[in-house]
Specification:
This protein is an alpha+beta fold. The chain is built from 22 helices and 27 strands. A hairpin with a 2-residue loop joins strand 6 and strand 7. Helix 15 runs parallel beside helix 18.
Length: 671
């Protein structure tokens, strides 16, 4: 809608004199009345976009020419200055550093290098939209805008190392152009092996190819918004030859070839996300949990509040999850990965919401380093061993499931759940008073007596279509929803506070549905021709990164174990060191069990055997907590379905057993 960086689309829309506009964008220039937001962190955690990795195309050890890059300009207490990047001489080496300069500064003295002789800073302008710095160099002047560079290695020389120059003058080039720009369905076909490079700036709105896996920045990115827009087209999930979305980071990895270091790219992208979403990565504020809704003893829902939020903050600090400044510690990251975050008993009902807030704050958006990317090969001596074949034969078969439940009982359960749900209060206004004292220590506030809550009478509320709203949220029929609401006796609450009632009713109904799905599911093994072939270990490529890899394993079906958390790394290490473990596999992403909440990928397949004793074949799910209340609802439902799936495969001699454990010792205790 904004029409790219220049806003042409917004100007065209304004000429139409619309009565209203509904706007959606990943990178809004002007933020108006936001009705829904799926921010960058949400999208990444839900895997609705590709994983990002960066291949750094930076120049090393080329400090033979003067280099000046304008980073920013500013006016601090009447002193106009700029921040620039220079190649500065240190005690032993020359390093590229950020330095502050003013009008008239001699860069030879600033950088302590003769290569900057006769290079001086001239006029610095801080006028918004017209920022620049004059650079006086031998032979004339250069006017640098923010992000622009003077000197250094010829950028064309770098680009020539990346691409072969084509002029587009031949008939073959015309045919290729038509294939790319017009025959997109043919382009996506596996019968067309063409790989191509296109210029992002040459494309206009409406051109969309989700199968973009590499993006190369040929010039300096001057603004953080431009950074996100430049890589935005590559973040869409790819599609197969049938036009269906392919999900999972195994396939959806976007490689950004950046003309800056990996660390700098990640840092700058994070700054933009922090600015756009308001998230301060790694910092938990004292008021962070104040808006979380809680239900009181009288059934009324209200925000947790600043005072209780601070109580929770102090608990996190006492547990070692955060330091005195609120900075996230490794202990919290490990607890989040393992699902073992602890909160005081009064906050237990809000654990899911608290964990959701902490997960957003606990770390930076994970960006992989392309230099650490490694293909992981199959270890032949394990893959071809009779032990692994025996293990795989017991878990390879596929199943189908049926949902058996009494529809009438589901409706009755929903009626009870809605009827017994907490009371819904009217809208209200809370008054609080405080004294403000301004001193050298800062601004302090002390709350006074007189706090009060006033109920607001909203006579002009326009009631929404409750049946349609709940149908969209629960996927039940309108007739079933009408029965539930009428029999619950809670329609007066709908008139009192429509939105809260819809939220509460949808939550109650969906909770009943989840219980029915898990309790009523029945798995059945398909025929012998439906299974995951052992050859898929060789045919499907497995990619890992050094920082998430246990290298040179001897009992694993792969040469290295790619792990997702510290708990998985420790589990694999213990499997390697335990003499009773014969072979094992960290099950790859293509090995999935179909479940109503979505595909389920178990963690491990393990073969245990003593000399001369019976062998045990296990499918193991590792979790930091074994309590069902500590697992997220969808995750717990998938585990329950996984248990039913492997139960259906328990045929023949020594079938594989499914278990959920925290450690290798727990696994042996249950075995």
């Amino acid at each position: 809608m904004d029409g790219g960086l220049r806003g042409a689309g917004k100007q065209a829309l304004g000429a139409m004199n619309p009565l209203c506009t509904l706007r959606y964008s990943a990178t809004h220039v002007d933020k108006h009345h936001m009705v829904f937001r799926l921010d960058a962190v949400d999208a990444y955690e839900c895997r609705l976009v590709k994983q990002i990795e960066v291949a750094s195309a930076t120049v090393k050890d080329a400090h033979n020419k003067p280099y000046v890059r304008l980073l920013s300009v500013g006016n601090t207490r009447g002193v106009i200055g700029a921040k620039v990047a220079l190649d500065v001489k240190s005690a032993t080496v020359v390093q590229r550093r950020e330095v502050s300069v003013q009008d008239g500064d001699d860069l030879e003295q600033t950088a302590k290098r003769a290569v900057y002789r006769d290079c001086r800073v001239g006029e610095i302008r801080v006028e918004k939209g017209n920022e620049f710095m004059e650079l006086r160099v031998p032979g004339g002047e250069r006017f640098l805008q923010i992000g622009e560079t003077w000197g250094d290695v010829d950028p064309l020389a770098v680009q020539r190392e990346m691409f072969k120059d084509t002029r587009g003058n031949t008939r073959a080039d015309d045919a290729t152009y038509n294939l790319i720009m017009r025959d997109k369905e043919k382009l996506l076909s596996l019968d067309t092996p063409l790989k191509f490079i296109f210029s992002h700036s040459a494309l206009r709105e409406g051109w969309d190819n989700p199968n973009v896996f590499q993006i190369c920045t040929l010039r300096d990115i001057q603004t953080e918004r431009e950074r996100r827009q430049s890589i935005g087209r590559g973040l869409r999930l790819c599609v197969n030859q049938d036009g269906e979305r392919v999900r999972g980071f195994e396939t959806n990895t976007l490689t950004v070839v950046a003309n800056e270091g990996f660390e700098a790219f990640a840092e700058n992208l994070q700054k933009e996300i922090e600015k756009d979403t308001g998230i301060r990565f790694g910092i938990v504020e004292r008021h962070q949990f104040a808006a979380i809704p809680v239900t009181g003893e009288d059934g009324r829902r209200a925000p947790l509040g600043v005072e209780q939020s601070e109580v929770l903050w102090k608990h996190l600090k006492a547990q070692g999850y955060i330091d005195a400044r609120g900075r996230v510690q490794d202990a919290l990251k490990q607890a989040l990965k393992g699902g073992t975050v602890s909160v005081p008993e009064p906050f237990a009902p809000q654990l899911d919401r608290i964990t959701e807030v902490l997960r957003k704050l606990a770390g930076r958006l994970e960006i992989r380093n392309a230099d650490e990317r490694r293909p992981v090969r199959v270890r032949k001596e394990v893959f071809l061993s009779p032990e692994f074949k025996a293990l795989w034969d017991r878990i390879k078969h596929k199943t189908t499931y049926r949902l058996r439940f009494d529809n009438e009982k589901l409706i009755e359960d929903c009626i009870v759940a809605v009827r017994d749900a907490p009371a819904i209060p009217k809208a209200r206004l809370q008054w609080r008073k405080a004294d403000i004292a301004i001193g050298r220590a800062g601004v302090e506030t002390t709350e006074r007596e007189g706090a009060a809550t006033v109920v607001l009478t909203e006579a002009d509320i326009e009631l929404p279509d409750v049946l349609t709203d709940l149908q969209d949220r629960t996927q039940l029929t309108r007739r079933s929803i009408q029965r539930i609401l009428s029999a619950s006796g809670r329609l007066d609450d709908f008139r009192r506070n429509p939105q809260q009632f819809i939220d509460l009713a949808a939550e109650a109904i969906n909770r009943c549905k989840r219980l029915v799905l898990v309790d009523g599911i029945r798995y059945q093994r398909l025929g012998d021709e439906h299974y995951y072939a052992q050859e898929l270990f060789e045919q499907e490529e497995l990619i890992g990164y050094l920082r998430n890899m246990l290298e040179d394993t001897t009992k694993s079906v792969y040469e290295h174990v790619v792990f997702d958390s510290g708990a998985e790394s420790a589990f694999a290490d213990r499997l390697e060191k335990n003499t009773d473990v014969r072979v094992y596999a960290k099950l790859p992403g293509w090995f999935t069990v179909r479940t109503p909440p979505g595909g389920y990928n178990p963690d491990w397949a393990v073969l245990i055997g003593h000399d001369g004793a019976e062998r045990l074949y296990l499918v193991v799910e590792t979790k930091g907590s074994l309590f069902a209340t500590d697992l997220r609802r969808a995750e717990g439902a998938k585990i329950a379905c996984g248990k039913a799936h492997f139960k259906a495969l328990e045929v023949g001699e020594s079938p594989a057993r499914y278990m959920v454990v925290s450690t290798v010792d727990d696994m042996f205790g249950l075995a």
